[in-house]
Amino acid sequence: MSSVASLAALHRPARRGATVIGAAGILxxxxxxxxxxxxxxxxxxxxxxxxxx
Amino acid sequence: LxxxxxxxxxxxPTEGIAMRDAVVILDIRLPRTVLTLLVGASLATAGAVLQGxxxxxxxxxxxxxxxxxAAFAAVLWIVFGSxxxxxxxxxxxxxxxxxxxxxxSLLSMILLYRLATREGRTSVAMxxxxxxxxxxxxAAGTGLVIFVASDQQLREFTFWTLGSAGGANxxxxxxxxxxxxxxxxxxxxxxxxxxxxxxxxxxAFHIGIDTQSLKRIAILLVAAGVGAAVAIAGVIGFIGLIIxxxxxxxxxxxxxxxxxxxxxxxxxxxTASDIVARTIAAPAEVPIGVVTAILGAPYFLYLVHRNRAxxxx
Lengths: 53, 313
Hints:
The complex is a heterodimer of chains A (53) and B (313). In chain A, 87% of the residues lie in helices and 0% in strands. Chain A has helices at 3-37, 40-50. The longest helix of chain A has 35 residues, at 3-37. Chain A is rod-shaped, with a radius of gyration of 22 Å. Residues 40-47 of chain A have low confidence and may be disordered. Chain B is an all-alpha fold. The model of chain B has no long low-confidence stretch (mean pLDDT 80). A two-stranded antiparallel sheet of chain B has the order 1-2. In chain B, a hairpin with a 2-residue loop joins strand 1 (117-118) and strand 2. Chain B has 12 helices and 2 strands, in the order H-H-H-H-E-E-H-H-H-H-H-H-H-H. The longest helix of chain B has 39 residues, at 16-54. The N and C termini of chain B lie far apart (53 Å). The A-B interface holds A 13-14, 16-21, 24-25, 27-28, 30-32, 34-38, 40, 42-51, 53 and B 1, 4, 20-21, 23-25, 28-30, 32-33, 36-37, 166-167, 247, 250-252, 254, 256-258, 260-261, 264-265, 267-269, 271-272, 274-275, 278-279, 282-285.
């Protein structure tokens, strides 16, 4: 294996980790938006039932 | 989005439908979302750290009895705490539920570690058996406490054990935030030590890792995070099992990216489960623990099936 190839192999796990963290971050943002924004007409009464004020 | 942008600059509608929407988003959904993110992140991170410490893929806070221990201690506080609350300063009383859950999970973790580890080696079978025994013991204790609980306490307890983010509000989040922050920051700090521990206890010791203090700190951190999560959202299983596994398969075993990924994906999965829990049977709300169990139990069976040789099958 050439030195360039071995260097690339050495960095691959770190790059893979960064990709996975990025993907997890995107999923988290989607979940946050979904949790905040799912139709107010559908969810508002449910939220109010869960928290009578 | 407009409500969030306005709120960040201190503007909040005071009448009509806009005010109702602002209440729903800022006072109900936003704290609920923040809570599910924190609880999911903590449970997944705790799972990753536990699996690193035990060097065992089946170490999940729910599965090995740590969550049940936290639940037992928290129930003790719910039922008997009101009698002793007058003796403590009000600040301590505010922290009493997460603190008692923390002590319960800490005690369970120490017992589990002592029972399952011999000469630095943790046996899979012992871990599961000890976990099952501790869970059963804590469940029996919980049953005994329920027996003497009042109707109000029983109702509070029943909703709480099923797992729910329904009671989320900002003061509750402020109380448990330090516990979650300690777990997340501490786990990142321990990441290199956990990497070394994966090589074996003797190998980690010989490259300069103080394995005993590493384990003690990890146990304290997991107990803090799981205790706080159980205290505020009830017993939610399988997040700590599924997420670290999925991430190990895709990102590899190095703990620093694993822990960051667990925090992000754990928060995302629990938030998504919460969306399902509150919409699937609207206007009623399915307990979030039921949703995570429906996702997690088949995955656990798959894991057992795949590793059946290790279980003597």
